[in-house]
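--- STAGE predict ---
source: upstream dedup step, 1 unique chain passed
mode: sequence only
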Amino acid sequence: MPSEAERLVAGAADGEDQAVEAALRPKDLDEFVGQERVREQLDLVLKAARKRNGTADHVLLSGAPGLGKTTLSMIIAAEMGAPIRITSGPAIQHAGDLAAILSSLAEGEVLFLDEIHRMSRPAEEMLYMAMEDFRVDVIVGKGPGATAIPLELPPFTLVGATTRAGLLPPPLRDRFGFTGHMEFYAPAELERVIHRSARLLDVEIEADGAAEIAGRSRGTPRIANRLLRRVRDYAQVKADGLITRGIAEQALKVYEVDGRGLDRLDRAVLRALLKLFGGGPVGLSTLAVAVGEERETVEEVAEPFLVREGLLARTPRGRVATPAAWSHLGLVPPQQGGTPGQPGLFGS
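--- STAGE serialize ---
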């Protein structure tokens, strides 16, 4: 099975995605598609900051990968006319790493900290003071002779992004002046994203072709753009370059992305749950062995979308398929009282 980074429907970005996103990324809030509530609220925050001739409040953006958190951070910097510094939580393993970044910031600069929930605890504690007082204490020396030297920082705006807001400690969350939660996109919004990207990529696409791609994009613009590029490749090689509904269907069949956006791994999990275990309940470890994957891969990569689509349910007794799962794979549920699927039959 492919890893999360290799999946066509993965929310995470690979190297190709990052390069293409740079070209497709909106430059201001008016151009940004979707997230109406967050855009409206953020627009007020930025306009108020500009009226005060000050820096914007610190911003926390949460939501699944691929929904536009990085793009919004760049828009914040552009709207404020400020430079932006980009780093990530995993890259900051020591307080000294953070101190080096903070001490080099210019006044008004935007610091974008992706995956902020993965920052080390010492760096996290240093960030509290930096966000609130624009000051850090740099420790010089070790042991009883160690000395804390206060270092004043110019006012800056921290934009933190996280896919797991619940892992952020309350003292850190409370220091953000604005918190925006990024929602999954509706198909109509994704169609607008696809049409805009097609124009920038110089791709001809019909409305029904865009609708077909949008319906398989799992509510995520990054996935929509990735599928658009793969369908474009198919259209250029197998057709005349024009993306119609039929071409999109044929292309995505080749790439094993079905009508609801499920890929090979998603369907393998559902098929094992339905065919081998009669729809469950079945323990996660048992299900992972059945599809030849690690437990964490099934739980973190496949399950979230299957649960969100109403195809799978997590229960105290194990994973259970819903009637929609049977219908999606064209299978008939077993009769009540049959051996497969009896509660408690398949352990964890």
